[in-house]
Design goal:
about 450 residues, mainly beta, about 35% strand, 2 domains, single chain
Length: about 450
């Protein structure tokens, strides 16, 4: 039996069973220290350092604030996740106006912390959370690895859930569906690890200015949901194989850009109608999110063939390819769009590629890791064009790099292996997750 005090706080998780006794013990210990629930009364998205993955609907990776003047960052606080063995937050955090943070982790939990790093509430899902949340109108939306989308009030109240992966399974049986599912099982594998790809949702939700939640998931592909009640407005079939991993980006007119596995780049209207579809090379999967440079009218699509090589495709809004550039070692992250003449993409070979926006030529490619899958995530770029990059250096270690636009290291902060995109607030504090089982706040 859990203590009564634990039950009162865990009302958010009562519909989910805790996965092991070690987790029970860790949580009970935390809760004995005293955790209070805070009710938010105000929200203004413009005052927040991040309300969605990569900081805007275009997924540019442009931070609204910049780093501080310290020679080296200093730890402000750390939050230890109540999981055993330790697991990391791969999800990048979002923040409300009161600087409460929201993020998911590989222990399957969705967390909210106060601005000082104290646990406010948490919710246990049935699978790992890779997805970064989106926050709008005092609601926060996130997806779990089993293909469910969850919407919470800022106080942790579960408002609705949507089974995106189950939508395809429950939408009738026919021969073409059986064929596509069989095809997916054959090709949806991590060839390096020799395992079937089991995650149903990898990407992060994007919320339009009209309150439409867009998510991609195993099965049908693209879903448009009403943020008020989670009801599907429409779906768009991305085809087979059906392990769709890449998320979506919206341009200034609300047009949707996304990629399906192994075949096509897509553009879809806000009403769910296909605008165009461009075929790419066979055997390449889309993992990273598309990114948009709205000033140039360019959409950047990263694709990868396992971990051997990848490409960045740059198209205009009509689907015409402007250029494509090969990335050695493959790509898992997204393209970050600078405020000057370059875009950034990390290679699994440990190199950060600076690409010319207009021609796609490689300006430079400094190396930050010699280990397998050294650069897995997406860099962020502050308002002074300083670049923040989380790096895996060994199986268990890594760090946060701050570099300038020439690729020169300004400082480095060593942590465990880090896989979340760094976020900076207006006080020049940076937030990252570590695979030591910690969520960190650093003063820069």
């Amino acid at each position: 039996m859990l203590p009564d005090r634990f039950k009162s706080v865990a009302v958010k998780v009562k519909k989910r069973k805790l996965i092991d006794s070690a987790w029970h013990v860790a949580m009970a210990s935390l809760l004995e220290k005293g955790i209070s629930l805070v009710t938010d009364k105000r929200l203004n998205e413009t005052d927040s350092p991040a309300t969605m993955f990569l900081f805007d609907r275009a997924r540019t990776g442009r931070l609204p604030f910049c780093k501080g003047s310290r020679i080296e960052p200093e730890l402000v606080w750390r939050f230890e996740l109540p999981s055993f063995p330790p697991t990391g937050p791969e999800s990048s955090p979002v923040f409300d106006k009161d600087m409460n943070s929201y993020f998911g982790a590989h222990d399957g939990c969705f967390y909210s912390l106060t601005r000082t790093g104290t646990l406010r509430w948490m919710f246990k899902t049935r699978d790992k959370i890779y997805s970064s949340p989106a926050l709008m109108d005092k609601k926060v939306v996130v997806c779990s690895g089993d293909g469910h989308c969850f919407c919470f009030g800022l106080d942790g109240t579960l408002l609705w859930t949507y089974d995106a992966a189950g939508y395809f399974k429950n939408s009738g049986r026919n021969l073409s569906k059986r064929i596509s599912l069989t095809h997916t099982k054959l090709v949806a594998k991590d060839q390096v690890r020799g395992k079937a790809w089991a995650t149903k949702c990898w990407s992060s939700p994007c919320v339009s200015e009209h309150g439409v939640v867009y998510i991609t998931c195993y099965g049908t592909g693209l879903h448009a949901l009403d943020i008020e009640n989670g009801k599907p407005l429409w779906t768009y079939d991305l085809g087979s194989p059906r392990n769709h991993l890449s998320g979506i980006a919206l341009n200034e007119e609300g047009v949707i850009f996304l990629a399906s596995q192994r075949r096509y780049l897509h553009s879809v209207s806000s009403g769910g109608e296909r605008l165009w579809r461009t075929k790419v090379m066979a055997g390449y999967d889309a993992w990273g999110n598309p990114s948009i440079d709205c000033e140039q009218g360019t959409v950047y699509f990263p694709i990868s063939r396992q971990e051997t090589d990848g490409y960045v495709f740059a198209t205009d809004y009509s689907g015409t390819v402007k250029w494509k550039t090969r990335i050695e070692g493959g790509v898992r992250g997204s393209v970050a769009v600078s405020r000057s003449n370059f875009v950034l993409v990390g290679g699994l070979n440990g190199r950060l590629y600076f690409l010319d926006k207009y021609r796609g030529t490689v300006i430079r490619a400094p190396k930050y890791s010699d280990t397998e899958r050294g650069l897995w995530t997406t860099p962020s770029i502050d308002s002074d064009n300083n670049i923040f990059l989380t790096v895996k250096e060994t199986r268990t270690s890594g760090g946060l790099y701050c570099i300038d636009e020439r690729g020169q290291t300004i400082w480095k902060y060593s942590t465990g292996k880090t896989l979340s995109t760094p976020v900076i607030d207006e006080e020049a504090k940076v937030y990252i997750g570590s695979w030591n089982g910690e969520f960190l706040c650093l003063q820069t």
